[in-house]
Amino acid sequence: MGKALIIGCGGVANVTIHKCCQNPDVFEEICIASRTVSKCEAIKEKLSGGRTKISTAQVNADNVDELVALIENFKPDVVINLALPYQDLTIMDACLATKTNYLDTANYEPIDTAKFEYSWQWAYRDRFKQAGITALLGCGFDPGVTGVFSAYAQKHYFDEIHEIDILDCNGGDHGYPFATNFNPEINIREVTAKGSYIENGQWVETEPMEIKRVYDFPEVGVKDMYLLHHEELESLALNIKGVRRIRFFMTFGQSYLTHLKCLENVGMTSIEPIDFQGQKIVPLQFLKAVLPDPASLGPRTVGKTNIGCIFKGIKDGKERHYYVYNVCDHQEACREVGSQAISYTTGVPAMIGAMLLMTGVWSGKGVFNVEEFDPDPFMDALNKWGLPWKEDFDPVMVD
Ligand code: NDP
């Protein structure tokens, strides 16, 4: 069928690469390109021998010229951006210059401001449209599958959706007192930011971790969860017509929160550069360097994740509730691809989104969020490629 260029070679990319190689009819050829090329070569060595042809390249994804040269040389059908959110715009620029389709799993964040929103990437809509190419934004799990779940609920079960609660539960235990399940810098920037949700079309801001709820997650159990700002709130508010309230909750254990508070109190989560022994360092980047690499957590993490959406709305004049979720087992994910479930639940949807673009099942000229496309083929693919979902028509609602 075609070729995909995968940029970045961390925890999430490892999963997407494995999944592309399990799907050689679509991914005949992939190129893995990242800052540290030895990581790309290590995965290539592990997976060579299958039908998907693998090549590697060194690239600085902050540099548009380097990216353009790489894309012109490899000529992919799609670029799958699994580097960091800081690189989204340079990679989109390179895709525009070469008229190549683009996909990512996290929205752009400027490196010097802990603020993430879609405005920067939505500003590319006209240029992608004119170039006749597609950008698919936020095609991981959340954002990603949560948008597909929302489009599916809208299409099959509701006349109007009024409330959406996105619940992200990680019931896994890696045995470390403190570690993050994906890139520590991105993760800590996300959870130390102010929370927010949408109520009656307005953003309501909260202090970090101000709103707490307790929920009994199917197959995982009772967990504390906290309201966070999350990027899909912004796109779902636009794309799910009539929605009045959207909230995002993520579970955190007490040990994680105590460590985080301590690190914050001593200044280790700051992104302001400081002088250290004659050079400038960013405390949060230094912290990342001393924390366990999320890509190494796979073998030691046990337990399950449960991520899903609870909807409240109207069908045929009656109030309806609907919960759709996926449960993913850390050890099963690790046995299959060598990564824990957080990377797995992000890397699989990235492969599925790329597959739908490459096969033309999802098509459109411009910049899109996942919920703008037909959810059905994506929902089928989740069942087929390792992230089966379950439904509950009488769930416990979050107050
Ligand atoms: P990692 O830190 O494990 O991997 C990032 C990779 O990008 C590394 O290989 C890194 O290279 C590479 N990279 C960073 N900067 C550059 C650069 N300038 N040029 C080339 N390569 C670069 O992160 P994860 O795999 O955990 O996360 C990947 C993405 O997935 C992130 O954007 C994250 O926000 C997103 N994510 C999305 C989720 C969702 O559900 N939507 C959930 C979890 C993550 P090096 O090896 O040299 O460091």
Structure, described:
A hairpin with a 3-residue loop joins strand 10 (212-217) and strand 11. This protein is of the alpha/beta class. The longest helix is centred in the C-terminal third of the chain and has 18 residues, at 341-358. The strands form three sheets. Strands 7, 8, 9, 10, 11, 12, 15, 16 and 18 form a nine-stranded mixed sheet that branches. A seven-stranded parallel sheet has the order 3-2-1-4-5-6-17, sandwiched between helices. A two-stranded antiparallel sheet has the order 13-14. The mean pLDDT is 95. It has helices spanning 11-21, 37-47, 64-74, 88-98, 119-122, 125-131, 145-156, 184-192, 232-239, 254-265, 283-290, 330-337, 341-358, 375-384; strands spanning 2-7, 27-34, 53-58, 78-81, 101-104, 134-137, 160-170, 195-199, 202-206, 212-217, 221-227, 245-251, 274-276, 279-281, 304-315, 318-329, 366-369, 389-392. Helix 1 packs across helix 13, helix 3 (64-74) crosses helix 4 and helix 7 (145-156) packs across helix 14. The site of NADPH dihydro-nicotinamide-adenine-dinucleotide phosphate has 33 residues, from helix 1 and helix 13.
